[in-house]
Amino acid sequence: MGAVLMAVLGHNPWEAFTGLVAGSAGTAHDLATTVRKTSPFVLTGLSVALAMKAGLFNIGAAGQFLMGSVGAVWVGIQFEGLPVWFHLPLALAAGIGSGSAWGAIPGWLKVSTGAHEVITTVMLNYVAALFAGWTVFAGSTLSTTRPGPLWDPTAGPVSVSPDVLASARIPWILGPSLRIHWGIALALLAALLVWWLMERTRIGFELKTVGAKPLAARYAGMRCGWTTVLAMTWAGGLAGLAGAIETLGVHHKFAPEFGGGVGFESIAIALLGQGYPLGIVLAALLFAVLDAGASKMQFDSGVPSDIIQVIQTLILIFATAPALATWLLNRVSRTQRAAAAAPGLRA
Amino acid sequence: MNAAPLAEQIGLRHQSAGNRRNMPYPVLEVRGVTKHFPGVVANRNIDLDLFPGEILAVLGENGAGKSTLMNIICGLHPPTSGSIRVGGRRLECRSPRDAIAAGIAMVHQHFQLVSSMTVLENIVLGAETTRRGILDPATDERGVDELCRRFGGQLDINPQAVIDDLPMAMRLRVEIVKALYRGARILILDEPTAVLTPQETGSLFQLLRGLRNQGTAIIFITHKLREVLDVADRIAVLRQGEVVGHTRPGATTEQAMATMMVGRAPSLTVPKVPGVPGPPMLQVDNLTVHRNDGTTAVDRISFEVHQGEILGLAGGQDNGQTELIGALTGLRPVSSGTVRLNGHDTTHASARRIGREGGTGHIPEDRHTHGMVEGFSVAQNLVLNLCNRPPFTRWGLLRLEAIRAHARRKAAAFDIRATSLEQPLGSLSAGNQQKLVVAREMRDGLPLLIASQPTRGVDVGSVEFIHHQIVQQRNAGQAVLLASYDLDEILALADRIAVMFKGRLIGLSPAAQVDRNRLGLLMAGIPA
Predict the structure, then answer these.
(1) Quick one: which H or E segment has residue B189?
(2) Within chain B, which residues score under 50 in pLDDT?
């Protein structure tokens, strides 16, 4: 579909495609970029998928991601002198913790007041974005407003936090030049953990039952409300970990613009992965390839990198609208059958 | 292309036409209809004729292909091969709309009425008279009135009544009028009597005979053999997707039809030795329960169920059984009164607490909303409400080998037919799904089994099996509370029988002292 679109727009789809591949895996450096971009996609995709398993639509991954980033940075810029083996896990835990707390709020609101999680998570995204912005706010020029608590005074008028201490950074895998860090291992581990949780533990079984059929869950004596809060807490924790990994692994500081984009993609990835951890890892990889290869594609073939967003959207439409795909397939096969039947009629 | 079947079709048509004087042309001809679903052949080369002015009963177990065939006839599914002719013209059904245009209407088991609208609005829904785009209810009402008069007062309904306020029997009538209003010449009724009292069934049959005499062709789908003998002109029996026989009410018996359906001779009665009632296991005292809308569903009810006895709770739908059982199982709050289970006060206990204390087996009224999760595997469904206790869980982890062993054991003991225990339950037939729920809820050592509509929508073979299991639990000393809209079921199983009518419990007496007729009257609220 994307190829057809490019051809219609007067570009060479093959050139664009090779550009895309080259851009995402052409050199070791490109490959590293792809891998680096995969981790937050995996984690936020898992976040949405886990909530979905419990029958909840977590639109709040973006907010939880930001809260996780802030939490991780808050711990990461202080406690000088702590050893890595303690400081880094502490900072990661802070990220998970703040993401969890942020996720638990809509879960709790749903159970106690019936407020729909789609509304509350979207609203909390705004709150999180404004809160995260405030923490590193540089203060107004006239000094009438005080700067945020995490703002780096040496950065002047720029709203950014200080660098996290070396002891709280996620180490590089193959040296600093490739910029590829151990966060990907954490993300894969999280995928494995989510799978294990859903398939092997009682609480996972209850969570799936509540998601599939709340009435059956109640009949079976499961605690629906508690399970809902728990699912949102875990979902928030996963998105929070994504934020922590991005700040502690890639940027090593926090600025409000770092959180962009995880909201929409996380939902797309969860849907494309059909809610299965392995599917989500693959979907995340695909989105990372598209993301990383986009600029190379534009450079090689002149196809605007915006087309990547169009392709992502098309993927999403076909993944989420099976009826549309079936209809298209039927059209194709009917045409083929008609073509096959035509000579027979003549004979 | 395929010449041989064509000749066969002509031959068949000739033959069937020769069999019927006075009615030379069938209004509906099903010819060689085959329907494949992935992995199954639901219908295999089915031939069926329906003549104007006759009632054809289509009998068959669940999964025999009745529903598939009816869905093909009324345009919901296209057949894989074969054809449907209506009035001699080939019907190319792409959607139910085409079937309705051809005069085919189906009354589904679950009524398709908008419950907040009036009778008139429901009848004309989608076929309203409009004048320049503006509704014209007066003309509609005249049309409906005229239609009702044509059937000689049999269809007397207040057109302004809201569906919600009508009893099930009336809603069924509304469905039938709706079909006739759309010009139906072929009326398909899918298990219409499942929710009716014997008296209501009787008057439905009167109505159907009236329609038949005016030329409407009726296909009547049911499991109840007695009704087939009562109302049908002709009987077609389906088994495993094929028509295995045709017969007439005068030429057959219930036993013979059951044998044709199942392929072996099932026993239609349940062998039962007199029970030995022990101490009361369930004591309900002055219980009142409200519906979600605040109306009283259960009104100051008191009764006991003893160890080793089956208490049958008869009654029409919406008379409070659902709410009573909800209250007993902790799914619905109790407004006043007390419930004691095995001596413990469980009046306000949650389903969770009742379950944790070893509580009750509960076969829920509607397995689809409460009793199972379609997407889960057979093995998972068998531990749906047991997964939080040993041996299925330890330290919060599921013990898969224990769950699998349990599933193997239950599947064997309860004859649950699945290709694998990992198969999603939704892909099993209704009978097997219900057997699974029954299997899960029949556990040794429980004081009480609550069985609500335990055989609803289940085929004859499975009914026989489930009934035996219930009696066995009772023989083993469990107290059993059986709620059913099916009088035959109550009469076959219960040791004591009571009727629920408008939230009250009436006519509680030993089973030996009641008969069908008296129960039917009690169900209609007429104390005998």
Answers:
(1) strand B186-190
(2) 1-21
